[in-house]
Design a protein that fits this description.
Blueprint lengths: L2 E6 L2 E4 L5 H6 L2 E9 L2 E2 L2 H14 L8 H15 L4 E9 L5 H4 L6 E9 L4 H7 L1 E10 L14 H12 L4 E6 L4 E4 L3 E6 L2 E4 L10 H12 L4 E3 L12 E6 L3 E8 L2 E2 L7 H13 L7
């Protein structure tokens, strides 16, 4: 069962909906954190990204990491979910003209949500998924490029486009046709033995899992880095996969009508999946 809490001082208050400003204007940032064995994974990295996003949206500074850690632990215990998606929302409490007329940082409130992990994900990680090239385009010069805002309509519509096509994910391109990201994931391709992912300059979310996978790949001796590429490159890629907090490493076996990597997850993807699984074991996280 899912659970939502608004933070009032050091208390967790069960709630049923978002704050008025978040609902009407979609003004805020959020983080989705994977909970393994009751422990939020890479919470510090997620909080750092949330702070950066809050600063870019001119929101007040979120509570200290230590306080949020305590609140998350309490929410996990109260919800009774040892394996979960933990969502942290830092959203403006002001509404209307206050959002653009008020001087200085905007007051905000913290919302904590927990929900179970879908059972089907492990099966998909084993078999691989189909993706499509979606119709949505992003502008890397947008004021919110690379910020995980709660104004998520475009990404949800891209995800729905994929679902309606019978695919797992939709690739989002920039206005020049480069792959930027998935609707809810980062994208990797193995081309001529080198692992590539779109550069942050194109506007993808700087994913926490994306960063960890780049580190794991380099530690394993694999050449890995950022490079712009268009969807056509994926037709010649040896392997392709998506990364995300909950999806972890999701192999891609088909892009539109083109089979990738012989239609099954590749050896490098499997190696990185295993390395990531070791990283997420409770007790091994530094």
């Amino acid at each position: 069962m899912s659970a939502s809490f608004e933070v009032a001082g050091d208390r967790l208050v069960p709630i049923e909906g978002p704050s008025p400003a978040a609902l009407v204007h979609g003004y805020g940032v959020f983080e989705a954190v994977r909970v393994y064995g009751g422990e939020p994974f890479e919470l510090g990295a997620h909080l750092a990204r949330m702070r950066e996003g809050a600063e870019r949206l001119l929101l007040a500074e979120p509570p200290s990491d230590e306080r949020i850690e305590r609140l998350c632990a309490g929410a996990i215990e109260t919800a009774g979910l040892a394996e979960a998606r933990l969502r942290l929302v830092w959203a403006a409490t002001a509404g209307g003209a206050e959002l653009w007329s008020q001087a200085g940082p905007l007051a905000a409130s913290l919302l904590i949500q927990l929900e179970p992990i879908p059972n089907r994900l492990q099966k998909l990680r084993n078999s691989g998924v189909d993706v499509i090239v979606g119709s949505h385009r992003v502008n890397e010069r947008s004021l919110t490029a690379g910020v995980k805002t709660i104004g998520y309509a475009a990404h949800i519509l891209a995800k729905r486009e994929a679902m309606e096509a019978g695919a797992y994910e939709a690739l989002i391109l920039d206005c020049e046709g480069h792959v930027v990201e998935g609707s809810m994931s980062n994208v990797f391709a193995l081309v001529e033995g080198k692992l590539l992912t779109p550069p942050l300059e194109l506007g993808p979310l700087p994913g926490v899992t994306r960063h960890l996978v780049l580190e794991l790949a380099r530690e394993s001796g694999l050449e890995a880095g950022e490079q712009p590429f268009k969807p056509g490159l994926l037709s010649s890629a040896e392997e392709c996969f998506l990364t995300g907090t909950v999806a972890e490493l999701m192999p891609v076996v088909r892009v539109d009508c083109t089979v990738v990597g012989g239609g099954r997850p590749g050896e490098v993807t499997r190696r990185l999946q295993a390395a990531y699984a070791e990283l997420t074991k409770v007790g091994d996280v530094g």
